[in-house]
Each structure stands twice: as C-alpha cells, then as structure tokens.
Amino acid sequence: MARVVSVEQQLRIRACSAGDVEVFARYRADPVSATLTFGAVRTPETAEDVARFVETVNASGHLWIWADASDRAVGFSVLRSIDRLNRTLWTGSGIFEPDQRGRGLGSLGRRLVLDLVFNEMDYRRIYGEFGSFNEASRRSHLKMGAEIVGVRRQVYFSSGVYHDAVVYTVARERFNALFPPDPRRHLEVRR
Amino acid sequence: MASRPVLAAEADLARAWPVVLPPMLTYLAAADWSAPVDPAAAARWLLDGGRIPFYREPGGTPVIAVLERHPLSAMCRLLVLSPRGPELEGAGEVLGDLVRFAIRDLGLRRCEWRVLAGWPVARGAAAGLGFREEGRLPEACFVDGRHDDVVLTGLLAPEWRAS
Questions:
Q1: Is the CB of residue B25 less than 8 Å away from at least one CB of chain A?
Q2: How far is it, in rounded angstroms, from Cα A48 to Cα A27?
C-alpha cells in the first residue's frame, strides 16, 4: 500500500530522471489519471514510448517532479508553450498515486512551481486548462489565484463523450499577493 | 470568381518569410506557433508536422495560411500570416478557404484560431464564418508597446454548416 504523504512534509521540485519514467508510465496508463490530466485515455504505451515523451517535453519545455523528503516522486508539472518573448507559459500537473489526491499535495506542488516560475524565472503570467468535469483541479487552481478566462468547447473526448476544457490564468501580482515571497530568501550568507 | 487556395511551395514560403515574420514575431509566440526565424528552416517547418500551408499574393501582398491538424483528434488550428497580420483586405476569404478545407474536405469537427484583441478585421472575419469567442488570454502578446489580449476563437463543424 502506498504511503500517505502529508502536506507538512517538505516537497521539492527537481528534474525528471530516468528513474521516474516507470511511475510516470503507470500514471499515464491509468485511465482515470489520464483523463483527469490529458482529457483522454492514452493508447497503450511501452516504457520506451514514455521515455520518448519525457524527452520531447524536456526538449521544448520542462517536466518537473514534485519529490518528497525521501526524493520519491509524488507528482509532476509540465511547463510547455514557453513564450520567452512575452514571458508567459502554460502549465499542467498531476499527482501520481490516486490515494494521495485530495490531501492538499496538488496545491502545494503547484504553489512551489508557480513561485519558481514567477519569482525566479521572471515569467509574468501562466495559463492552463482542466476538464470541465475536474472540480478538484478547479478548486486547487483558484487557491493559487487563478482567474477563469474561457471555455474551449468539446476538446476532450472520453468514454464516447466530448467535454469542454476550462481555461485559466494566474498573474504574478495576484499569486504574490496570496503567497508573498521573501525577497531575501536566497541572499542569506550560509555559515 | 474567387481564386482557389494553392498549396504553398517551399520556395514561396522561404521568400515570403523575411517580410511576414518581423511584424508577427510576438503574435506567433503568444499563439503557440514556435516557428524558426531562418527562412529555409521556417519553410520546412511550415511543411512539416501535420501542417498544410497555402500561399497567395493578393494585390502583391504575401499571405501564408496554415492548417495544423491535431495529432490525435479531429481538430485543427489555423494561422494567417501577412506583413499586416490578418488585418488585410480579404482576410475573411483566406480564413474561409482554410475552414472549408478543414471541415468540408478533411472532415474535421473543430477549428481554432487565436487572434489579438486589437485586430478588429480578423475578429470580424472569424465571427462572419461562425467562430465563437471562447476565451481570452489576458496580456498574452506584446504589441505596439503594450500587452494585448489574445482571443481564443473556436468553430464546430455544425456551426459552420449552419452559418
């Protein structure tokens, strides 16, 4: 049985390594997880297929792992459509194990990623979307300061039914008003 | 009688690219079209990856119109490039040809087009074909010294047939 991770435990963001491909492959193969994240069940994939997907994402964006105190991968964020001219990007995320959802981990992971994107990488805004059926995702994004800005009609397809995608944005100013960064956090001299 | 759209040749795309790209650079980035800057590479990119480009020169102005099929589903994204963006006379005809090709000839069920909020001709052309404004990405594109919104428009096949 999977160990329950509480939000009090330290999460950290790290790059996706070869050792994470297996857990990511399990996640993509699970129809519920895939529908929540990608809006559709994935076609059958080999470990090599998933490894290629990870390489493809990292070639144009980032696939980051949310790791717990023992460096175990508990979730991930994908940063894609990185617009270095206009300083915006799109994000998507998920928690690997179903029994760890609904405990606040997703909000914590997203918060860490947005803090990095806004306050260390100097992006102004992020955009993202979730299935109109995904209430947990809606609640989590609203906690991050998300503003709903649109609905793309009939873009997801699952179990024979088309679903809408809800589009949201988070502005840096809004996020930082909710979660003010310490401007001196990386300026302390270590002794 | 309106001319039929002509599939683009690599040489036409490469020749037009230095004129078309500079005024549309930030728009391309904001609308998630990561096109190369180099003309030869851009021409190859436009002809690759499920993209179907058309080329014409109405009144001597180069216009590149692109349809990109979604890799998994019956949807597509549209792109209209010219030195004036899609704010050119005849934008509706260019867009209309793309939509007709997508829905009538390819059987796709959904088209998407992202336009700047500050492009009234383009938005009017989209509305005239039945596109609906489905959302807006605030401050997504830096143009004319300020950040402009990108409007997400979408068209479903039954809506086009009814329009």
A1: yes
A2: 15
- Which of A115, A122, A126 has the alpha carbon at shortest distance from A81? A126
Residue with tokens 């809006």: A39
As a whole number, the mean pLDDT across chain A is 91
Residue whose C-alpha is closest to residue B50's, from B33, B73, B32, B67: B67
In the stretch 95-124 of chain B, residues with CB closer than 8 A to chain A read: 109-110, 112
SS (H, E, C) A90-143: EEEEEECCHHHCCCCHHHHHHHHHHHHHHHCCCCCEEEEEEECCCHHHHHHHHH
Cβ distance B135 to A40 less than 8 Å, yes or no, reads no
User: Which residue of chain B has the CA closest to A83?
Assistant: B29
pTM for this model (two decimals): 0.92
Alpha helices by DSSP H, listed for chain A, are 21-29, 31-38, 47-60, 105-119, 135-143, 172-178
Q: pLDDT tens across B78-111, in order?
A: 999 999 888 888 889 999 999 999 999 999 999 9
Which residue intervals of B118-156 are DSSP H helices?
A: 120-128
- Find out whether B37 and B22 touch, Cβ atoms under 8 Å: no
Which residues of B are less than 8 Å from A152 in CB distance? 112, 134-135, 152, 154
CB count in 10 Å sphere of residue A149? 18
Both tokens of B114, joined, read 């992202």
Mean pLDDT, chain B, whole residue set: 93
How many A-B residue pairs are in contact by the CB < 8 A criterion?
Answer: 68
